[in-house]
Design brief:
The chain is mostly helical. The protein is built from 9 helices and no strands.
Length: about 190
């Protein structure tokens, strides 16, 4: 393959990753996985933890898209471990969110909440309102799904305050829709 002519391993790992992105974009997942794995292997040889995190996230996402949740969870957990080692709060935050989503999709609400709450701590520690919005919104959604309407309502009201601070009308309207749904569900 033409990537063999690129002598510098840093360039090679980046090139392989970019080719993986292209194959993923056109939904040729097996080809994308091949390039991401090759890029991951070189990143590991180089000790490039940032690239390892990127590759693991993409490999996990493809496994998730293919319904291979156990493998996706394994890769997201590897991603989380590497992100934690290098104190990469965003990488850890993203891995926690992905892990929580898989647990939510599989109906494991306690584990989904645990992961979302851990991600929320990162968002609060970093004082990032947008990350906090998304975590708290997800926690409220889980409580809504579980029909814990009072908890969900309290959380969505907090989310609404954050959306107002962010001055994002789309986030406000999305939150208001969920609040209205809870009131409707409570009337039934």
């Amino acid at each position: 393959m033409f990537t063999n002519i690129i002598g510098d391993k840093n360039n090679r790992t980046s090139c392989l990753y970019q080719i993986g992105l292209i194959f993923q974009e056109v939904k040729q997942y097996e080809e994308a996985l091949k390039y991401y794995r090759d890029s991951l292997k070189i990143a590991e040889e180089l000790g490039d933890l940032n690239m390892e995190v990127l590759c693991l996230e993409k490999i996990a996402k493809i496994n998730e898209l293919q319904g291979n949740y156990p493998e996706a969870l394994k890769k997201y957990e590897e991603m989380q471990n590497i992100a934690s080692k290098q104190e990469d709060a965003i990488g850890k935050f993203l891995s926690l969110g992905h892990i929580a989503e898989i647990h939510l999709r599989n109906g494991n609400f306690p584990e989904a909440l645990k992961q979302f709450e851990e991600a929320l701590k990162i968002a609060e520690d970093s004082k990032n309102l947008e990350l906090k919005f998304h975590c708290l919104f997800s926690i409220a959604e889980v409580h809504k799904i579980q029909e814990k309407y009072e908890e969900a309502l309290k959380e969505f009201k907090e989310v609404l305050l954050i959306a107002e601070q962010l001055e994002k009308d789309s986030l406000k309207s999305m939150t208001l829709i969920h609040i209205a749904e809870i009131y409707r569900f409570k009337k039934k």
